[in-house]
Amino acid sequence: xxxxxxxxxCLADWYREAAEQRxxxxxxxxxxxxIYGESFADWKAKHQREATPEQLAAFDAAQRKGMPS
Length: 69
Fold this sequence. Notes:
Blueprint: H1 8-21, H2 28-36, H3 40-47, H4 53-64
């Protein structure tokens, strides 16, 4: 997320918005499933861990530089 300047959830939001612009109805959960390859809840349970102090510091530094989250 820090290197790219955006997260998977942002990507899922953009994906959903693009689908809707093309007349394809999509929920937030459906878009996240398309990006994560499974439901967000399942992905989060398997893979998401607490951020390390170093990761939090890097995120804060990126925010101060005006990078999108």
